[in-house]
Amino acid sequence: MIRRQFLKNSLGVATAAALSSCRTKDSRVRLTFGSYSDPGVDVLKDEFLPEFEKATGIGTEWVEADFSGWLQKALNDGETKAGAFDIYVMDDLWVPRFAGAGYLANLEELGFQLDSDFLPSAIDLGYWPPKTGLRQPGIGSSAKPALFSLPLVGDVQILFYRRDIFGANPPATWEDILRTARQKSDPGKRQYGWVTRGVKGNPIMNSFFVLLHDFGGAEFGENWKVTFNSPQAVEALEYYLSLLPYEPEGVAEFDSDQEGETLLQGNAFAATIWTGWCRQTDDPARSRVVNQIGFSVPPGNVKRVAKLGLFMAGIAASAPHKTEAVEFLKWFSRSDVQTKFARAGGIPFKMSAFKDEEARSKSRWLDAILDAMTVGIPSPRTSDWSKVEDILGTHLNLALLDKGNAKQHLDTAAAEATAFLKTAGYHAD
Amino acid sequence: MRTKWLPWALIAPTALFALAMTVLPLGYSLLTSFEEFRLGLPPVFTGLQNYRNLWSDNNFHSSLATTLVFTVAATAIEFVLGLSLALLLKEEFPFHGVIRSSLIIPMVIAPVVVGIIWRLLYNADVGLFSFAVHALTGKNISVLSSTTLALPALILVDIWEWTPFMFLILLAGIQSLPLEPFEAARVDGASAWNIFVHLTLPMLRPVIVVAILIRALDAFTVFDQVFVLTQGGPGTATEVATLMIYKTAFRFSQFGYGAAMAVALLILVACFSAAVTRAFKGTV
After folding, report:
1. Which CATH code is given to the segment(s) A29-155+309-377?
2. Contact across the interface for A103 and B124, Cβ inside 8 Å
3. CATH class for domain B59-279?
4. Taking the CB of residue A50, how many other CB atoms lie within 10 A of it?
5. Taking the domain A157-307+384-423, which CATH number applies?
6. What residues in A contact B39, CB-CB < 8 Å?
């Protein structure tokens, strides 16, 4: 009898507790973020979402997967309008695909307003159709650009260089980098003048992008004509290949992890790397070159550019909590919150946050990032860029293995890309 | 009347579930393969256009050839190694349990983790594999960035991971064979080789066919290791069909064309499966 009574009471208590916890859970809206896992979003996820919850009373849930896995989930959610996510965290490359396909809500229609503190190059990535440049077939020149996504975390490829090798000032030209590599590389002691990402597709294209533009080349000319086999592009690739003797064995298989590790272990003098690696360079647990790495905009040849690659946030067209999602974007893009974000080690996207003295003293790379984002350019704004990038990236990888024949490889890639663009409706003839 | 419908009613939930999980997605893929399906736009029926494009798509043909080489080489070597191990370890001996258990460890590791482990081993600069080759030959070798070595390197990873599977199935098969024919052969003075060729292999044939079929079908759809280790490179040296299908559908957003590739691969795998089953008809 006593046991039965005990069980009865326990059941009652457990049920009451479960019901009360359900009531607590249901009492506030829970915003669901979907993202790919990347150290670049850690500060936001670990420190600023709890702060947002405290400030607004809106709950948050962070769902993440690896890059490809999250892309699949997001595409699936967008296409089926399932409404599983409120906010999509996207690579800036995804914006044309997601906005063009109608997966994202128009932020201005939801009441979001921009202020003048946003970095123009960062906010421009959130518009579809793009505010400047070529427009994908089917989008008329009169179509008005609309804001479909906002920067979430700043990111750009900057030059990481060894101050003990190059001195206090960054190398001013690409020739400086090559000359130093020639003079000081010592493969026997695993000292290399340069390191790059050589894996086919997106990784090698990310590495080549800056050189292509710095040497005066571009991916496309007027009316989407492929121009990445122009004399300037060939010169850029020839330069890229000229660095090969001063790079680690097998860079053709290097992705960002091996590239970054080579630099952190003190085995390379310089590389163009995403800003997500900045914090690790001064972490004694991760780096053998603490305080020896300098940061700057990559050197120029014909012009000086950097490659943008921001984390973007868009509200799903099928989001169940659009009002609260806009609330988050408004809160997180407030200049004071962005300044706190920069002080906590995040990469902001507002000018005032970059200029904050405390943030600059804590993150000595912020000035270089601001400079790079100011001259930064993104990947071509078309949803078909991934396919063209794959074609070009495959032939760049082959050129790396071939250690030469730059023109031949670029011509082959251009022919393949042109054929694809014709079938995709970019060229009439 | 009630007894007539009762069995159908009882299996209906399972049958419906199976239908929803297998036939419907397959049917949807087939339908999609006849469409031009781009993100955000309503699909447009284009008949056999995707299949016509496939017919002239050299990259897809090349990826099918790579898949075939991978499948045949990996399955054949895994079979030979698995059978050898099963014959070696079929008898009981001290620590046989520990040894057999440790042999199946690679099989229970997630393929992505296997890919990461081998990527480190193959690393040209600091990898153990490259170090060993350098120590033995004095040459620097960069396996994953060699167009001739990358595919064999992937096959080696598959062999490492899946030979235990062959070993397990064949060991179970060998242990279930009747003892009498073997004892009679030994009494008649048959050599070990003759016993293996004329008794073990023929009696084991149904098990061998099933093991080869399961492994080959799995190898046809290899993805994770390739994705982690090479992403299809260098160039297109390791671009297997599944990777190409994935990229076409999810990276390039050409869902219709990707579905057509998937259907083509399915047909190829079904033909392969039918050919193997037919070749060993009567033994399975």
Report:
1. 3.40.190.10
2. no
3. mainly alpha
4. 11
5. 3.40.190.10
6. 75, 78-79, 97, 100-101, 103, 383
* pLDDT confidence bin for B1, thresholds 50/70/90: low
- The 10s digit of each residue's pLDDT in B5-25 is 899 999 999 999 988 888 899
- What is the per-residue pLDDT across B77-114, written as a single tens digit (0 to 9) for each? 999 999 999 999 888 888 888 888 888 899 889 888 99
- Which spans in B221-254 are helix H? 224-229, 241-246
Name the residue ranges covered by the structural domains of chain A. 29-155+309-377, 157-307+384-423
Domains A29-155+309-377 and A157-307+384-423 share a fold: yes
Closest CA to B39 of A126, A132, A94: A94
Q: Cβ contact (<8 Å) for A390 and B251?
A: yes
Both structure tokens of B119: 């990527």
For chains A and B, count residue pairs whose Cβ atoms are closer than 8 Å.
Answer: 97
Partner residue facing A97 (CB), from B39, B146, B247: B39
Distances in whole angstroms, Cα of residue A297 to Cα of each of A110, A368, A373: 36, 6, 9
Nearest to B40 among A103, A190, A386 (CB): A103
Who's near A23: CB < 8 A, 6+ residues apart?
none
A401 vs B contacts (CB less than 8 Å)? 145-147, 234-235
Q: Which residues from chain A sit within 8 angstroms of residue B142, using beta carbons? A: 249-250, 252-253
